[in-house]
Hints:
Layout: E1 4-9, H1 19-30, E2 33-40, E3 54-59, H2 64-71, H3 78-96, E4 103-104, E5 107-110, H4 111-125, E6 129-132, H5 147-159, E7 163-165, H6 168-178, E8 185-187, H7 204-209, E9 218-223, H8 232-240, E10 246-251, H9 260-268, E11 273-276, H10 286-290, E12 294-297, H11 304-307, H12 314-321, E13 326-329, H13 332-341, E14 344-347, H14 353-365, H15 367-381, H16 384-395
Amino acid sequence: MLDKKCSIFFYEGYVGIAPTIINLAKVLSQQSARVSIYGSKNQYAEAGELGVGVETIYFTKGTRLFDLLIKKGFKDLVPLLELGLYVLQYFVYKAKHFQPSSQQKINVGVDIYGAIAALINFYIFREKFLFLSLELHDPQKFKGISRVIADWVKIAYRKSAGLIIQDEDRFKTFCQYYNYQHPQCFYLPNSPLGFDESTVSDDFFRDKFKLSPEQFPCIVIQAGMIGDAVYSKDLAFAFNSIDNGSALIFHERQKTTGNRYTEALLKINPKNLFLSLDPLPYDQIDRIYRSATIGLAFYADLGNNFTQISMASGKLSQYLKYGKPVLVNNLPSLAQLINKYKIGIAIENPADPEEIKLAIAKILGDYDTYSQNAKSCFAAEFDFAKKMQPILSLMSVT
Length: 398
């Protein structure tokens, strides 16, 4: 019987590419909780089945009025209107679907807008909430009248029953942003559920792009976004000069038919670059990672949200779960993980074909060891179910 309720306020709404949200909902469902995820409409892949009693409600995210205000120079007002529209739609929905029979448990407010929505809900209905940080948002980004949002999120942080964040480094940064160190902090990696001990591979990309093992014995994948933020052009350029039988595949997280950027990538590398622009739902995403020989997790130095990425990178944890060695760029958080567990190699220059070629050769020369290390790292650092136990205890659903 589903006699407990939990609301997850996730304004961004990209549930299908957010392992933390998906697995949080699944774990709560396994504990006989009814879970409602309140998100915004988006173009990302679907999550698939999340468990008994889990529903995802998508609200309208933007309007033509918002676009017009931005064009007219009132962009500082738009964040307030976005937040207001989201909260209004939530309360309208709640009024239409109110179910007093279930016992309300601690809710979860995700990032800035989600935390503020959870705070308002707390003031009205006295429902406690946890603040879940998926992204590190510097409150200084809010200008003009929207600065009030930064003040509200500070209040939400202090009023929350606890903070859920990926690791200690991101917690320290979060505390600096909001000038407060919450006494109740839980570290939860952005990772999939379950440890995969099998060695089963998948021919998903070989079938999709007709890649023969003779021509391309090594399949190198970078899953997720495609863009300069993940060195897509640099990597395309580097692999164009690599002739060791490696196929480079960029797998997009949202459906696209191509654009100027992807067309430019194919001009940079028409030889061994393949673009997978039709994402799979999350419940089939294992096919992506099982298809890889080596996984790529490259992030540009664009501030703390990227530089402190190791435990927040969904793609990295997926590679490791399936025993895939990795190549990363030499950011401290990524390099530390590489050095500690010997799961791959950190690259100094993502555009250097010789450096990448040598790194691939080194991994392939001792592949079984790197693969086993990857699985060991996942078990030690990315065990979502284990890290959830203290959170479940606080939420009183165990």
